[in-house]
Design brief:
alpha/beta; NAD(P)-dependent dehydrogenase (Short-subunit alcohol dehydrogenase family); SDR_fam; 300 residues; Rossmann fold
């Protein structure tokens, strides 16, 4: 985005963004922060107020929750309240026809897409409560949820967004991942493989997109206080500081501020292909989390 197009306090006022998997967690935090920067945000996912996603039964039971928290409608309303324009679009990102229809709608209504944030993730659907175990003890269903309903989701959305960006000769694709300098995420081989694949996906797409002026990066948040993390520790956002074990956590809006900073950086092409940690970006772009802390990068 050109400097002359920016408005103080609303640097992304002319940005059209799609954030996938934005009913809750990182996706919600990202969408809200893009809204705070003035962006128009298409908020996508499967959970609506009237019809929450119905594939989280196992995780809900582990978290002692009756219903899945959040919806695309709630997130879109918050985007608008923060000063952007939130548009909720129900989309199952595992279904190619629904993803294609989403981007056709964005093109029809907005004429372009400037930013795609790939965040839709199916890994929670098969979580058994056990994270650290040798690979032969993890259920094979984790592969299906993390790859067929995780990595594949990111590729599907990128395939639809890329032609629009290539035509405009500008744009940014952000893939949310987890990365700790190549260290193995001990105890969960499937998770390690899936996140490494997402990181490599962002790198590979960057190579194909670079000649067209389109950037692709992977962004790695730390340990986020998502709705499920807070429920698992029997607390909420207002009281998490009473739990010492959560002292290294960050809010989902911290990664949102990182992505808003990248989207507003006219030199973002120089970062294309990189995997970027939110804590590092906070120092580079001088932003903090919602509680005023500059949380360092999470390390294993």
């Amino acid at each position: 985005m050109n400097d002359e197009e920016k408005t103080p306090g609303r640097p992304l006022k002319d940005c059209v963004a799609v954030v996938t998997g934005a009913s809750r967690g990182a996706g919600r935090g990202i969408a809200i922060e893009l809204g705070a920067a003035g962006a128009t945000v298409y908020v996508t996912g499967r959970s609506t107020r009237e019809r929450p996603a119905d594939t989280y039964g196992q995780l809900l039971a582990l978290s002692d929750m009756a219903t899945v928290p959040g919806s695309i409608d709630d997130t879109a309303d918050e985007v608008s309240r923060m000063g952007g324009r939130g548009i909720a679009v129900r989309c199952d990102h595992t279904k190619e026809e629904e993803v294609s229809a989403l981007f056709a709608r964005v093109e029809r209504e907005a004429g372009r897409i400037d930013l795609l944030v790939n965040n839709a993730w199916g890994g929670h659907e098969t979580f058994t409560g056990v994270f650290e175990a040798p690979f032969w003890e993890h259920p094979l269903s984790n592969w299906d949820s993390m790859f067929d309903r995780g990595v594949r989701n990111h590729l599907l959305a990128s395939r639809c967004a890329a032609p629009l960006m290539v035509r405009a000769k500008k744009g940014l694709i952000v893939t949310t991942t987890f990365w700790d300098r190549g260290h193995y995420m001990r105890g969960s081989l499937f998770y390690d493989l899936a996140k490494a694949s997402m990181t490599r996906l962002a790198f590979g797409m960057a190579q194909d997109l670079k000649p067209h002026g389109v950037a692709s990066v992977a962004v790695s948040p730390g340990w986020m206080r998502t709705e499920f993390v807070l429920a698992g520790h029997k607390t909420d956002e207002a009281h998490w500081q009473q739990r010492p074990e959560l002292s290294r956590t960050e809010s989902p809006r911290y990664v949102g501020r990182a992505i808003a900073a990248l989207a507003g950086d006219p030199m973002v092409m120089d970062r294309s292909g990189e995997v970027l940690r939110v804590g590092d970006l906070a120092r580079e772009y001088s932003f903090t989390d919602i509680d005023g802390r500059q949380v360092p990068p999470f390390e294993m």
